[in-house]
User: What shape does this take?
Amino acid sequence: MAEKKDYLDPELYTNRELSWILFNKRVLSEARDKQIPLFERLKFLSITASNLDEFFMVRVASLKDMVNAKYTKKDIAGLTAAQQLEQLNVVTHELVAQQYSTYNRSLLPLLKASGLTVVEQHENLSEEQAAYVDAYFEDNVYPVLTPMAVDSSRPFPLIRNKSLNIGALLSKRKQKGELEFATVQVPSVLSRIVPIPAGENAGKAIILLEEVIERNISRLFLNYDVVCSYPFRIMRNADLTIDEDEAEDLLKEIEKQLKKRQWGQAIRLEVEAGVDKRLLRIIKEELSIEEEDIYRIDGPLDLTFLMKMYGMEGFEHLKAEKYVPQPIPEFMEEGSIFEKLRKGDILLHHPFQTFEPVVRFIREAAKDPDVLAIKQTLYRVSGNSPIIAALAQAAENGKQVSVLVELKARFDEENNIVWAKKLEKAGCHVIYGLVGLKTHSKITLVVRREEDGIRRYVHLGTGNYNDATAKLYTDIGMMTCSEAIGEDATAVFNMLSGYSEPLSWNKLSLAPLWLKDKFLYLIARETKHAKAGEQGRIVAKMNSLCDPDMIAALYEASAAGVRIELIVRGICCLRVGIPGISDTISVRSIVGTFLEHSRIFYFENGGNSEVYCSSADWMPRNLERRVEIMFPVEDPKLKEKVLHILEVQLRDTVKAHLLQPEGSYEKVDRRGKETFNSQEAFCIEAVQAAMAQADPHDGRVFIPEVHMEMEEEA
Assistant: This one.
């Protein structure tokens, strides 16, 4: 036991939050990469901004709650919540400075050179532009605004979370009295990007809505002189606190808590650099903001507007062509999905291959007179989900439809409440998750009556049933009518809807009760092989790695000589290159056009290798506080495909960043190596496979010029 304890020494771990900042820096490095088309770089910069917003609303907010509650327990890296906040304060300010340096020094000049001028300050407008802006304000903006003055009869207004506002100091005309504070919210119902005449310059010109309002702010306060006005934006604690044991109706409780999210404690204030000190003092005092939580911004607040700028027409030459997900060869011929699955399991690799067969699976089941029941877990779905529509239709057609809708999926709560009500109205049996646990597993079960009896068809996946993100996130899905998996799937849904736990499982492993032990057993088995003189090898791909028990087990395996190759997109609390502890471990993070989301695990097992896919990362929340599923890939052809995915990612020299012993990440040193982009390779392979299926007699190899669309980080 003493040896195990050594592997849990805080010196061997990186703090989770600091590791996340490093991940967002890797995303920022894509915005700084001159090899990437200019408008794609704008998108990456926008993603870093929305990522940081969520990080503050949830992770920083949680740490502040701990400090306020005088919670002093240390994390795996030996830091208290207060120490973490202290360190985060330094690195987040550095990150924001890097964001704006990228915007101001690199992207803005390139945009201007490419024919798009961003007028940063309304004072710089030409006479023609100024006249246009003033008319635009009068006709479109003025009627929407609600100026809010603050005085003895009017208290400081509630400033909504993430809203952009303009604060102003006013003085009454012809009176020398105290300055008064007023604020106006920049309306989110209007486009923040306002096209204006380009003037003599060729190309296009834009100005931001807050500059239009600032220019005309005196129109809102006619009996006052506007002494100064500056934009500001606040971030509030958006972490919902729900006591599920006390909540009689989880649906109503979450609806109630969602309203509170707009008014949670202010935890971050962004102001324009050079803001008037008197104005800042009022905002700071009214919102109870500490000095270290103030971010003085050299540029426009809230860079997520760059995602909207990307949509501007006329700049297609500065964007990458959109990659179209390819058909899956097994589904290209006519015929029933059920018929195809009886011939064998089918693997799906999104977004390189289309998500359409998953939607078709539900649609076909909804219409098929022989289908008796459809059961599905839903974590996040798209705004106009075809899957929801198919499930509703199935219920209307008299099928037994059971859907577990996870109401606690962060920032999708409102969306999921809408869908849950719609499904209930259609006659589906809707389950709202389990008390104390999030249901994060991705599983669909279709029960069908056939000539030889009841047969169960199952879809298992690493990603959500979301047709929109399936074009942006890399995920693995498997469709099967395996009897063993079908039995397990029935047991999963019985467990979710009732209280029955099966005595044993055939193929599936579930969190929070069994999955972690399974992973620890598989790692220990590799350790045992290595100690016996055999070659031990683990390749594991996931989004995040921060579970101390898993990391300690990996350290023990590495110390025994197991070769461990980790592909971890985001947070990684493990450290590499520690003598005698992690010499044989490498960690790579791939940040590219698509968001790496699949979880794949390979264990060599003395030559009798095993491959698994899962909805779970190696994080305490996934392994101990969520319902997650891991499934084996056993069909030799499918297993080969999954191994190929891992091998291709381990070859990446373009989008891969390697974790260094001192904790930083560096791009792969390409000297003497091929230039190899794994995501581009998967696109090419998917196109080739679809073409070969369409014309099997055509022996030509077709390698297209592949460009891909970027995603917004989830």
Q: What stands out?
A: The chain is about 35% helix and 20% strand. Confidence is low (pLDDT under 50) at residues 699-714. The CA atoms of residues 114 and 426 lie 52 Å apart. The longest helix spans residues 81-113.
